[in-house]
Amino acid sequence: MLSENQIYLASRSPRRRELLRQIGVKFNLLMMRETLGRAIDIDEQPLVDEAPSDYIYRVARAKANAGWKRIMQRHLPVLPVLVADTIVTVDGCILGKPRDNAHAEEMLKILSGRTHQVLTAIGVGVKDDVQMRLSASTVRFREISEQEIRSYLVNNNSLDKAGAYAIQGMAAAFIVEISGSYSGIMGLPLYETAQLLAETGIEIFQ
To answer: Where does the record locate the signal sequence feature (predicted)?
Structure first.
């Protein structure tokens, strides 16, 4: 049975689950699947001239709406739905999850020796009311050799990570400095998440 102090987490990311558990949030996974087993259709292609912040807000809001569609379809108890989306941006270009290892290698070469931004948009929705927050962090990479990139890709799964890397893994050895939210770079900024949940009536510290 679900309690009133619980939420749905509409995400497959194990990192987001881990982060929510760190701050003691009780949640149930909301698996984003249609009745016939197809993934719910969310357009994650950037629009022409769409700013990274506009893009990520749009995708996160679409995920929240899809989450409520899922709840209504399955006649689930009405609880807040938490969604999140993370992208890496450099020179105004959006780097999402790589298509394959070749694409991941291309992304890491772009990030090598440069500073990039990590944007994570989160939303907490109750029916059609979705409150949003944006976490923006800056990360600077050292120069990474081609051999290091290949070794990293062999030893790590980069295909489910924006920008093809995870700050909490081996890629930490590439990072010279960060400015912003460590948990936001991981995929769920806990400060903003706690704020939104509190506004929904779910207090972490009681």
So the answer is: none
Catalytic residue among 41, 43, 85, 129: 85
Residue with token string 């899809």: 66
- State the pLDDT at residue 37: 36
What pTM was computed for the model?
0.91
The CATH number given to whatever domain includes residue 16 is 3.90.950.10
Looking at beta carbons, which pairs linking 57-60 to residues 24 or more positions away fall under 8 Å?
Answer: 57/121, 57/132, 57/134, 59/85, 59/121, 60/84, 60/85, 60/121, 60/122, 60/123, 60/132
100 catalytic residue (yes or no): no
Q: How many domains does the chain have?
A: 1
Domain that holds residue 171: 6-199
